[in-house]
Design goal:
With 236 residues, the protein is mostly helical. Helices cover 68% and strands 0% of the residues. It has 15 helices and no strands. Helix 12 runs parallel beside helix 14.
């Protein structure tokens, strides 16, 4: 565990009280907010990314321990290293990384943690699996906000391959979700479907569902539409 302890010490050495306060406010850690109780020590994302370069060979056991940390930046470091282990691992190692990820979703508990990791591990692993729809649908039906966001963001992998089916399926499932972070995630992925897969597919989905979509979701989805078309959707 020497490497793990070294990483923790180096992260703590970069802590900054002023940045901690700003990050805590930005990621809504106050009582009743989505990030309630999350602890930031004030290490920036570029600093975390730079530091973990020296810890790419951290064991999966140590990564999981790090992911259990109360400090947000420790959990981000764990996920970034896990992604690297997944990318360079054998199929067996990739399955271990995927399993580790899904049994620790309660620790992947803010939108930046989800957005930095879901597509690279869950999305990639499920791409050619027969049980992909079953897993994503189960996550989308979860009572845990972060699992629902993981379901949506995991589809970014297939979107980048030019395949919109998974994203549209999960977007439809999450259409009536009550949380703003899900509205933004769904709208974002729909926008990416139009950009990377098919504008026709996105518009077909919107024509069928725009009247049921929360306003934030719709705004995100049509953000890059031509001005006239965007205004027309908002007036419907």
């Amino acid at each position: 565990m020497a490497k793990l302890q070294d990483l923790q010490k180096q992260l703590l050495s970069l802590s900054n009280p002023e940045k901690s306060e700003k990050l805590s406010s930005f990621f809504k850690t106050g009582k009743g907010q989505y990030g309630e109780g999350d602890i930031f020590i004030g290490v920036t994302m570029p600093q975390v990314r730079n530091l973990v370069k020296s810890f790419k060979t951290l064991s999966l056991e140590s990564i999981e321990l790090l992911l259990q940390s109360k400090e947000h930046e420790f959990r981000m470091a764990a996920l970034l290293i896990l992604i690297e282990r997944y990318r360079k691992g054998t199929k067996e190692t990739q399955k271990e990384c995927y399993d580790l990820y899904l049994r620790n979703t309660e620790q992947i508990n803010n939108w930046d943690l989800v957005d930095a990791s879901a597509e690279h591990i869950v999305g990639h692993w499920l791409e050619d699996k027969a049980y992909k729809t079953e897993v994503l649908s189960k996550l989308a039906q979860s009572t845990l906000l972060w699992e629902r966001r993981i379901a949506m963001l995991s589809t970014f992998h297939s979107i980048k391959q030019g395949k919109e089916e998974d994203a549209l399926h999960i977007a439809f499932m999450l259409m009536k979700d009550k949380h703003d972070l899900i509205h933004k995630a769904v709208g974002w992925m729909l926008r990416e479907v139009g950009k990377r897969c098919s504008m026709e597919a996105e518009e077909k989905f919107l024509e069928k569902n725009y009247s049921q979509m929360p306003r934030t979701m719709l705004r995100y989805a049509i953000e890059h539409f031509p001005e006239e078309k965007r205004k027309a959707y908002l007036k419907k």
